[in-house]
User: Which sequence fits this backbone?
């Protein structure tokens, strides 16, 4: 595979060398767009480093390097503009999350997807992880009855990264629903078997992580002070956030993410209940527990641990190579990325307005609110991505 990379930073360097290359040892990076050439070059093999072309536009990249596929790993706010340009070319894409950071971006991407032949793999490793796939398979056997309720928890033990690195820049990330919950909303929808259609959310900010400008006269000196975090008025990442979720098939759920958890408080996973049983799993514990409600049996399944993104990255990488080389279907398609963005934006809006918010649906069904008004679109299936 001749691969072009846009935004060859930490994440893409890791994916390239630890995930894509093992999946395709013949892979060769032929072109890069990244203003930090020195660091980007250091992420390539010495041979690639000598032959690779650094370009300053998508047009130049495609013309000069004629890649078989493109991977986009720039920071969050640039994913959509680059993807939209590339969708017009019909090349397979690997697209980092969050795939959009505003309704306007997501709508633009959805529109561009309506006319493309590109196959897109969205970087959602959790839905691809062996643990999540196993739970999906177990739900599919009917052991629960139907999945009626999902609880998703995410106690993030590395939460400081959202306050002491570039992720603190709210203008770039647009908050931690889009940055973090985008993964969890995606795998919860995958397990529920339906998209999220309605949310009510809350978030807490400026209490644990605070901007250094607030240190003076601060009554609670136990807060964690960092530079350039912003304020609730200018926009800032949250300490924690939670959402009530309604899925299109009537299943309900609740999700919570906490960014100041540390050490053994780390937890990420879900508890899914139906009339007949409850399944819980946690990626940090690498375990699944199945409790049958009406039989005297509880089963525990252990999975291999110490896998990157719990094994999801490897599965994503293999799928991407398969899409490019064998025209396989994407197992993490654009529609999943868009649906997750719509749910995250609805959750953020609900947290700010204190109201339930309908989640816009890919293809135009449902609604999203803009400027206080409901924004309905007529279903237009010709416009739907993935077609
Ligand atoms: N899927 C996942 O699990 C996962 C994990 C980590 C990060 N991410 C996402 O990956 C993205 C990158 O994160 P990172 O930690 O690698 O950040 P990073 O800053 O290390 O990488 C971003 C790269 O983009 C480059 N860049 C800057 N301006 C650019 C431009 N105009 N055009 C092209 N490239 C440009 C930077 O020089 C840098 O090399 C983020 O959006 C993040 O949310 C996803």
Assistant:
């Amino acid at each position: 595979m001749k691969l072009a990379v846009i935004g060859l930073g930490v994440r893409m360097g890791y994916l390239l060398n630890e995930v894509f290359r093992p999946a395709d040892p013949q892979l060769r990076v032929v072109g890069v767009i990244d203003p930090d050439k020195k660091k980007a070059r250091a992420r390539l093999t010495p041979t690639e480093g000598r032959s690779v072309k650094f370009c300053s536009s998508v047009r130049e990249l495609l013309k000069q390097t004629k890649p078989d596929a493109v991977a986009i790993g720039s920071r969050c706010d640039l994913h959509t503009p680059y993807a939209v340009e590339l969708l017009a070319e019909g090349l397979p894409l690997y697209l980092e999350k969050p795939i959009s950071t505003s309704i306007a971006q997501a709508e633009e991407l959805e529109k561009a997807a309506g006319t493309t032949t590109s196959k897109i793999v969205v970087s959602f490793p959790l839905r691809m992880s062996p643990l999540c796939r196993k739970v999906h398979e177990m739900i599919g056997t009917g052991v629960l009855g139907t999945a009626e309720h999902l609880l998703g928890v995410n106690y993030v033990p590395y939460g400081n990264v959202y306050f002491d690195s570039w992720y603190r820049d709210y203008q770039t990330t647009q908050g931690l629903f889009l940055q973090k919950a985008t993964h969890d909303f995606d795998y919860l929808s995958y397990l529920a078997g339906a998209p999220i259609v309605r949310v009510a959310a809350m978030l807490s900010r400026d209490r644990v992580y605070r901007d250094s400008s607030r240190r003076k006269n601060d009554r609670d000196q136990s807060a964690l002070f960092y530079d350039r975090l912003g304020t609730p008025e200018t926009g800032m990442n949250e300490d924690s956030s939670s959402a009530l979720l309604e899925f299109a098939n009537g299943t309900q759920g609740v999700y919570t993410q906490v960014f100041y958890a540390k050490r053994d408080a780390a937890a990420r996973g879900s508890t899914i209940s139906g009339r007949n049983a409850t399944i819980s799993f946690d990626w940090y514990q690498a375990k699944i527990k199945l409790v049958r409600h009406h039989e005297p049996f509880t089963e525990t399944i252990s999975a291999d641990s110490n896998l990157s993104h719990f094994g999801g990255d490897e599965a994503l990488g293999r799928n991407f190579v398969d899409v490019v080389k064998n025209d396989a279907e994407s197992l993490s398609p654009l529609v999943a990325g868009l649906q997750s963005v719509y749910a995250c934006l609805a959750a953020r809006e609900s947290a700010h307005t204190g109201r339930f918010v309908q989640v816009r649906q890919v293809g135009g069904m449902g609604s999203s609110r803009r400027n206080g008004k409901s924004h309905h679109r007529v279903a237009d299936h010709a416009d739907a991505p993935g077609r």
Summary: The mean pLDDT is 92. The first strand starts at residue 2 and ends at 6.
